[in-house]
Amino acid sequence: MTPLYALRDIEYRNGTGFTLQVDQLHLHPGRIYALAGPNGSGKSTLLRLLALLARPQRGQISFGGAPLSFEATELQRHRRRVTLVEQTPYLFDRSVAHNLAFGLRLRGVRGEQLRRRCSLALDQVGLAGFEQRRARQLSGGEIQRVALARALALEPEVLLLDEPTANLDRQTILALERLIADLPSRGITVIMATHDPVQPKRLNGELVRLVGGRLADPPHPPENRPQTSPEISTCPRPLNKRER
Ligand SMILES: Nc1ncnc2c1ncn2[C@@H]1O[C@H](COP(=O)(O)OP(=O)(O)OP(=O)(O)O)[C@@H](O)[C@H]1O
């Protein structure tokens, strides 16, 4: 199976003495991957590389089966397939609806379709009816959920989440985990950083552990997946958008 991402001999120095080094990492479509590791181990840095927001100084990233050249039009095309929700999301000081609509408008979505996608996404994160709330007057947990709704409204092929449940109460965490666990069945691959040691298991996700900017070991498939190695998947998986 062609991996969605194939990273080979990656070296990325972020200018503060930290280097992310990934000899090889294959991430497959229609799955959930959980990036784990201590503070500063490189989870967010890896997410930025996977979001195609940073270019490694060395090595190759293949996305969707083809090596990236990092040429501007290619990047623009691929970035529309991938959405990153950062650890501290930035919201415009406008209404929640404005924040959700912004990226959709850039993609040419308008009118009833735009309204429908926004309210559906808010509903999914448990914030139905929040459209007219001012973004700056939201709690930390609500900001995080609005940022997730904004990403979901874009209907990306890959959703990259940087500690998406860090500021949330237990009940909201469980509700969002149900939502995230369901995303592969909608053709969305999820790659998320987490500090919760049990979360990958609850999400049936594969664990990718980082230590000091390096992969600690190959990705661990979930225990209930009949898989012999991260490269060879024998379990059926939902088709992603491009295969339908
Ligand atoms: N924007 C940045 N510019 C330069 N260096 C950065 C930047 N962001 C993070 N770093 C540094 O890069 C290293 C890796 O940070 P990164 O945020 O990727 O780790 P992390 O595993 O996500 O950590 P945490 O669990 O604390 O979120 C750290 O040493 C950090 O200080």
TrEMBL record:
Keywords: ATP-binding, Nucleotide-binding, Transport. Gene3D superfamilies: P-loop containing nucleotide triphosphate hydrolases. One of its GO terms (molecular function) is ATP binding. Residues 5-237 form the ABC transporter domain. Pfam families: ABC_tran. Residues 212-244 are annotated as: Disordered. InterPro entries: AAA+_ATPase (IPR003593), ABC_transporter-like_ATP-bd (IPR003439), ABC_transporter-like_CS (IPR017871), ABC_transpr_CbiO/EcfA_su (IPR015856), ABC_transpr_LolD-like (IPR015854), P-loop_NTPase (IPR027417). It comes from Desulfuromonas versatilis. Coiled coil: none annotated. This is Tungstate ABC transporter ATP-binding protein. PROSITE patterns: ABC_TRANSPORTER_1 (PS00211), ABC_TRANSPORTER_2 (PS50893).
